[in-house]
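Researcher: Let's run the pair from yesterday's discussion. Sequence first, then tokens, for each.
Model: Starting with the first of the pair.
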Amino acid sequence: MSASHDGESRPRNRASRALFEVHGRGESPEDQSGERNLLLSFLSESAYSSLAPSLEPISVSARQVAWRPEGRIHAVYFPRSAVFSLLTPLQHHSPVESATVGYEGVVGVPILLGVRASHSLAVVQISGEAARVDAERFRSWFAEQDEPTRAIFYRYSYALLEQTAQSVACNRKHALEERCARWLLATRDRVASDEFPLTHEFLAAMLGVRRASVTVALGLLQQEGYLTYSRGRLKVLDPAKLEETSCECYRVVRAEQERIMGGMLGAVQQESS
């Protein structure tokens, strides 16, 4: 999105960003130029300044619940280094992950669409930092924004919808080893590191399978030399080979996010060139 659309300037540092580049970790940024959440960095200076007083910097831990099924959503989260999972609950089975949200997005799309509760379960996948905003305060702020600002969030909402749709097909049609590789690559993108904490139990819950099945799948990937796993920490050794093992869903979802959200990034890049 260019400044000519809304008359606001944009932070210069965003011109060189890609959707999955490495981000530093630390406390809340002093100003927008240091913002690590992509959606917040896309906001005009005036939009960001009006929301900034409501952005509460927090640290979140793995398995922490953001909201429960059918429960009221009390806050919206903008991940900065943390990663969240959205899971679909089932009456007679464990919930299954339908989408992953990292620094590229926001956990709270129902709120910006005018819905105060969700059938999904939102939990922290990887510990880290985020900015939290009271849900009603965010609704009020969002209602006052201009069309270009609202478009940023609507475009992301569509990208999340596309990711969820792809997950449905992936969970139904693709082999566990392929799905496991996809999940590991997507998480690697969002933590911007080859190494991250992970347990067999948690990965099994995210993929909706038995723990023993995940143990076998990870063992096969480790035998191939694509990763190592020890004492609750996983390290990707060969991301290219891991991507070859993954189903096409990893590439499809990433390409769609680049296409949908990268359009705004491209406009900023053209501006600064």
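Model: Moving on to the second of the pair.
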Amino acid sequence: MNALVEARPEQARPGQARSGQARSGQARPAPARPGQAPGRLAPTALALLESARQGLANAEGETSPGGRYVAAHLAALRAAAAIVAARPAAGTGRRRGPRSVWELLPKVEPALAEWAAFFAAGAGKRAAAEAGLPRAVSSREADDLLRDAETFLSLAEEALGMPAQPALPLRSVG
């Protein structure tokens, strides 16, 4: 059964073929953006990245699948918000009303559009887990999302020209 779940195309993660690059520290440096010196980010963006990294650490320590899923999803949300805060897109003023960070991310960082769609699709599941629905997420789904959020955070840091952060330690077996 697990092999069938893994083989379904809709279960594939965005950038799956590239995810090993971000984890192995082999990521290429991000190009500097016009008007932004490499490595110079607004304090808000830096705080959001730090909050995202802390959220991943909290997710790792969660014992319930729902709690792990929620913490990982919120960490990814904060990483996306850091990019949006660092690179406000033209035409994203308040005239149109509030918009999801997952809608704004592809406009300011098109390379992460698939990730934005992936995490946007998981928002309903996160809401169900936050509401305490007992079967909202399985342990496997929570673990998968935690790994995906970690990869996404590494890609977000790379996109912002931040030095690579070490991956969270994996739980030892045995």
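Researcher: Give me one sentence on the second I can quote.
Model: The longest helix spans residues 65-86.
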